[in-house]
Automatic annotation (TrEMBL):
<dbReference type="GO" id="GO:0140359">
    <property type="term" value="F:ABC-type transporter activity"/>
</dbReference>
<keyword id="KW-0547">Nucleotide-binding</keyword>
<dbReference type="GO" id="GO:0016887">
    <property type="term" value="F:ATP hydrolysis activity"/>
</dbReference>
<keyword id="KW-0472">Membrane</keyword>
<keyword id="KW-0067">ATP-binding</keyword>
<dbReference type="InterPro" id="IPR039421">
    <property type="entry name" value="Type_1_exporter"/>
</dbReference>
<feature type="transmembrane region" description="Helical">
    <location>
        <begin position="91"/>
        <end position="114"/>
    </location>
</feature>
<feature type="transmembrane region" description="Helical">
    <location>
        <begin position="54"/>
        <end position="79"/>
    </location>
</feature>
<dbReference type="InterPro" id="IPR036640">
    <property type="entry name" value="ABC1_TM_sf"/>
</dbReference>
<protein>
    <submittedName>
        <fullName>ABC transporter ATP-binding protein</fullName>
    </submittedName>
</protein>
<dbReference type="InterPro" id="IPR011527">
    <property type="entry name" value="ABC1_TM_dom"/>
</dbReference>
<dbReference type="GO" id="GO:0005886">
    <property type="term" value="C:plasma membrane"/>
</dbReference>
<keyword id="KW-1133">Transmembrane helix</keyword>
<feature type="domain" description="ABC transmembrane type-1">
    <location>
        <begin position="1"/>
        <end position="117"/>
    </location>
</feature>
<dbReference type="GO" id="GO:0005524">
    <property type="term" value="F:ATP binding"/>
</dbReference>
<keyword id="KW-0812">Transmembrane</keyword>
<dbReference type="Pfam" id="PF00005">
    <property type="entry name" value="ABC_tran"/>
</dbReference>
C-alpha cells in the first residue's frame, strides 16, 4: 500500500507540473519543483528497498519451512514403513499429495500480497464510492417554462456557509446578471440550480415544480451552461463544439 500511495502522489504531482509548466517557468520555480520531484522519487526508492528486504527475508524462511516439513514427512513415512503401518505405494502417494498442497499454500501468500497492492491502488478511489448517487424520481412534466424561482436557498460546505437565505425569481424572456467578488457564491448558485449541489435548505422550482424529486437529466435539459473552464475533449473540433448542444 505504501508503494502504490507514493506512486499515486508522484503521478499527481507530475500531472500538476505539466499542466502548470508556464506558471512554473514564469515564477522561476523549476529548481524547487525539481527538488520536490526528486524527493518523491527517493521516497519510492526507499519503499522499494524496504519491500526487497522483506521479500529477501520472507522467501528463504518460506523455503526453509517447506523443506523442514518435507523432511519431517519423509522421516515419519519411513518410520511407518519400517513398522509396516504404511506401504511404499501409499507413502509415495502421500508425498505427491503433500507437494500438490504446497503450491496452493504458497499461492495464498502471493494472493495476500496482491490484495495489499490492489488496496493501495484503490485507496484514492474509496472516497468516490462513499458519495451518494443522484436521486432521480419522476419525469419533469412541463413543456414550457414561465419562471425559475429560488425560495430561501442556503448552501454550505461543512460549517462554511456560502449561500444564506437566497431568494430570486427569474421570469421567462428576462436578462439577469449575478455580480459579486470571487468566492461570493455566483458559481455555487448555478450549480445549485442545475442540481449539481443539493441545497441545505430552501427550494428551487420551475413553474412551481420543485427540483427535489425530479428526474435530473430531464431537469437539466432546460439549462445551457457556458463553462469558464477551457475544457477540451480528445476528439474532433466538431464534436467539442456540439458537445453542449
Amino acid at each position: 500500500m505504501m508503494l502504490q500511495e507514493r506512486i499515486g502522489k508522484l503521478n499527481t504531482f507530475t500531472s500538476e507540473i505539466v499542466r502548470s509548466m508556464r506558471t512554473v517557468k514564469l515564477c522561476n520555480a523549476e529548481r524547487c519543483m525539481l527538488l520536490k520531484f526528486k524527493k518523491r522519487v527517493n521516497e519510492i526508492k526507499e519503499v522499494n528497498l524496504l519491500n526487497d528486504k522483506v521479500y529477501s527475508f520472507v522467501t528463504p524462511v518460506q523455503n526453509l519451512i517447506s523443506i523442514f516439513c518435507t523432511g519431517v514427512i519423509v522421516c515419519y513415512g519411513v518410520h511407518l514403513m519400517d513398522v509396516h503401518l504404511l506401504t511404499y505405494g501409499s507413502f509415495v502417494a502421500y508425498v505427491m499429495l503433500f507437494f500438490q498442497l504446497v503450491t496452493p499454500v504458497g499461492g495464498l501468500f502471493t494472493f495476500y500480497l496482491s490484495c495489499q497492492t490492489i488496496k493501495g491502488s484503490l485507496k484514492k478511489n474509496q472516497p468516490c464510492h462513499r458519495i451518494s448517487r443522484e436521486v432521480d424520481m419522476e419525469n419533469f412534466a412541463y413543456n414550457n417554462v414561465d419562471y425559475l424561482e429560488l425560495k430561501s436557498v442556503s448552501f454550505g460546505y461543512n460549517d462554511n456557509e456560502v449561500l444564506h437565505d437566497v431568494s430570486m425569481r427569474l421570469e421567462k424572456g428576462g436578462r439577469y446578471a449575478i455580480i459579486g467578488p470571487s468566492g461570493s457564491g455566483k458559481t455555487t448558485i448555478i450549480n445549485t440550480i442545475t442540481g449539481l449541489y443539493s441545497a441545505n435548505s430552501g427550494a428551487i422550482a420551475i413553474n412551481e415544480s420543485l427540483l427535489d424529486g425530479q428526474h435530473l437529466e430531464e431537469w437539466r435539459r432546460w439549462f445551457t451552461v457556458v463553462s469558464q473552464d477551457n475544457l477540451l475533449f480528445s476528439t474532433t473540433i466538431k464534436e467539442n463544439l456540439f458537445f453542449w448542444s
